[in-house]
């Protein structure tokens, strides 16, 4: 209880009955839930996201709005469709496109996975993992938390405690603390989150020493896995072509520098091929 109230306190939408809220400087906050109320049914997807402009700046680079929307699975034709004709899943993707088009270093999401289809959920996961700022997140979707967060702040036993990792990491560390170790580092003054369901993410992956088990692949991993067979085939072809060239006696009539350069190139491609095979096996092993 009180998770949304806590977020509204942090956002300044509510005044605390006691105590105070201390915020950092130069904050640029994007609040996902607010965007739900700002979709104009009589404007197109392109107009809603681009506010009437043909180009948009996102991720530090300027691009055409239609090209940007393709990152959110909208074709050029669909980008010109009125919002009132969109499905629920498409509307949610419009909201995500608006969210990540905003110049923000803090993103606040309150139960963002509600009513998301699998495709949009994976897109959201991928975007949050790539986001370079801080995310304040409330969610009851434990798998979603495990996939995207790097820090969980929990109200328990009358204290505020911070744990590295997502929901399952919190459960594991809490069990370890209960059985053999002192409590984890407490959150500093002013840091808040919801019990068991609120987490913050910071850039960079979590260094987990737990063995990797079966799980649903993240959106970016699914794309990577789909592209690996073609990448492996391309590298195999390059290696075969180099071997064929080196089998020709004329190859060794070249200057020594040219021969050494091609031999080095062969070793580099073979190394990349070995890496691609290992990554393919790793991702295949994760698929549940």
Number of self-contained structural domains: 2
By DSSP (H or I, 4+ residues per run), the number of helices equals: 11
Instruction: Report, as a whole number of angstroms, the end-to-end distance.
Output: 33 Å
Number of strands: 8
CATH architecture of the largest domain: 3-Layer(aba) Sandwich
Stretches where pLDDT is under 50 for at least 5 consecutive residues are 183-212
Instruction: Write down the Rg.
Output: 24 Å
Approximately what portion of the residues adopt beta-strand conformation? 5-15%
CATH class category of the largest domain: Alpha Beta
Structural class: alpha/beta
Strand order in the sheet with the most strands: 1-4-5-8-6-7
State the fourth-level CATH superfamily of the largest domain.
P-loop containing nucleotide triphosphate hydrolases
State the CATH topology of the largest domain: Rossmann fold
Instruction: Tell me the quaternary state.
Output: single chain
User: Helical residue percent?
Assistant: 40-55%
Could you give the order of the helices and strands?
HEHHEEHHHEHEHEEHEHH
Major sheet: size, sense and barrel closure?
Answer: 6 strands, mixed
- Overall morphology: extended
Average predicted local confidence, pLDDT: 79
Give me the secondary-structure topology.
Elements: H1 3-10, E1 29-31, H2 32-35, H3 45-50, E2 55-58, E3 61-64, H4 65-70, H5 76-79, H6 88-101, E4 106-110, H7 118-130, E5 134-138, H8 142-148, E6 151-156, E7 159-164, H9 167-179, E8 198-201, H10 219-246, H11 256-286
Parallel strand pairs: 1-4, 4-5
Antiparallel strand pairs: 2-3, 5-8, 6-7, 6-8
